[in-house]
Amino acid sequence: MTLILTRSDVLALISFPEVIAAVRSAHEDLARGDAVLPAPPSMSLPGSGSAFLVMAAASKSADLATVKLLADVPANRERGLPAQRSAILAVSADDGRCEALLDGGAITRFRTAAASAVATAALARPGSRVLGLVGAGALALAHVEALRAVMPFGRIVVWSRTEATARAFAAKTGAEVLASAEEVVKTADVLCTLTPSKDPIVEGKWFRPGLHVNAVGAPPRADHREIDTEGIRKARVIVDSRLTALHESGDVLIPLGEGAIGPSHFEDELGEVLIGARPGRTDSRQVTLYNSLGVGLQDLAAARLLIDAARLRGLGTEIDLAG
């Protein structure tokens, strides 16, 4: 039987502590060679601004292989629809049976914030107390909840291009709305950039010593980035996957194309830091930056949790695809 989990099913089952732990373990498995994560192919139709990304992964410990088809449709914003939509197909790594089909929207939001929490716990300065957010949408709300689970932030500051969005976010989280992205960057100990920007919205000249950055929001397109070249050059960059970063990250590919840095600037993966194969933060003044593209292995980790929880609690819909 194949389990179908709708968005409402996912939201009834998912929680940050479990997803954070699962994402951490998944990256550790990747670093140890117990998981497979190929670079995702991207497709676009002639004359269309949409992109379709195929995000695959397989894991021995999870006994699962997954494929998420992500549709990135910028024109949806004008239609009042989500710019990104996705679905995840999961099969048994043991015998290939189709285990589940899951709505990907909520899963993507949770696992993305969970990955930032994992990176922050591993890389941020001990004693970091000010969380700054550039962007104030649903992903920002998820980041506040996830990062509070790993660090006791006493202050949250936020900026958004849309003041009403920032004010609504502040009402829900207790954040302070600042007048510019620059003010947020200069105030924060830990910074999360959470905008679908094509052009840099954060400048490296604003970085204070000891800052940790989670660069999250730019879509998986080689010409989109939130951090300027100076910011990437100044930071110790950790990626979720070298293959993925060199395939689709504008934050990586644009500075490389400019000759500002070389490929070695992006050779450290998060999982390698987690298992001690690569160093984490080396001193209190170092600027660290987690280049978060979001990878299929994170989706797989969340899917394994949800499939097991749904069957334990009797949620979702079981169908016989072979019937």
Automatic annotation (TrEMBL):
It holds the Pfam family OCD_Mu_crystall. InterPro entries: NAD(P)-bd_dom_sf, ODC_Mu_crystall, ODC_N. GO terms for cellular component: cytoplasm. GO terms for molecular function: oxidoreductase activity. GO terms for biological process: carboxylic acid metabolic process. Belongs to the ornithine cyclodeaminase/mu-crystallin family. This is Ornithine cyclodeaminase/alanine dehydrogenase. It comes from Actinocorallia herbida.
